[in-house]
């Protein structure tokens, strides 16, 4: 606890020092690199809109220019409309390499009118197997909605329009690894995964609907940029540090906690922490801590 408080204090001091050079994320040209898919990925409208598309040959993807070590990173997404079965829009933070840390949203498309599945996972040192899945309380293809990762030394929160849907706490005290040493970039990709995403290939991707397109706007990152091997927030020197430091809060407030419980009661469709078939020998340690389960 003491060491956490002093870490946070250091962050706060360095963030306050940096807050005068606060600027917004600017255009997507400045924040994002298109990584693959050639002309299937496009930045449009003077850098205010990005689209990824998928056709029978190939999908597409992008990556943030910066790497982050803690922060709140968010973007607005409008998912593939219509019959999107078999498509997966992945939106995630990841460090490089086989012992990577990774925090995932994956949006699994569906037949027209049937709900998307929001698949989430947390990898630490290359090990995941911490899936939770949700349905949404709105149609994610009708308009843009904000999907965010809040990542600080104390917990990770997945949010949809500022409603937290999942919290992964730092439980190193009971031997659960926590992502805190590897900087991560934001990635997104649109790809075809009909074997995985449609209940074992039950529903095929309808290629007559291709190209499938997902849209993105309003990238925002409040946090700590990792640059040239420098490991602390005090090394942040220029953009992307906003005055809003609320992402550093070590716990959800009462209202957010209520919203999280509302989502988990009404919209959670899979939780590894209750899957007894999968873990006959006992659940992973973090499942014993209530807020992860
Ligand atoms: C598609 O919708 C059906 C019917 O509601 C649901 O059972 C299934 O889990 C959904 N599939 C995906 C991939 O979201």
Describe the overall structure.
GO terms for molecular function: hydrolase activity, hydrolyzing O-glycosyl compounds; xyloglucan:xyloglucosyl transferase activity. With 293 residues, the chain is mainly beta. It has one domain (2-289): Jelly Rolls. Strands 1, 2, 3, 4, 5, 6, 7, 8, 9, 10, 11, 12, 13 and 14 form a 14-stranded antiparallel β-sheet that branches. It has 4 helices and 14 strands. It has helices at residues 2-18, 28-31, 194-197, 254-266; strands spanning 32-36, 41-44, 49-54, 60-78, 87-94, 102-108, 117-123, 132-134, 145-151, 155-160, 163-169, 184-192, 212-226, 268-271. 13% of the residues lie in helices and 37% in strands. The structure holds 2-acetamido-2-deoxy-beta-D-glucopyranose. Residues 108, 110, 114-117, 197-198 line the site of 2-acetamido-2-deoxy-beta-D-glucopyranose (NAG). Residues 108, 110, 114-117, 197-198 line the site of 2-acetamido-2-deoxy-beta-D-glucopyranose.
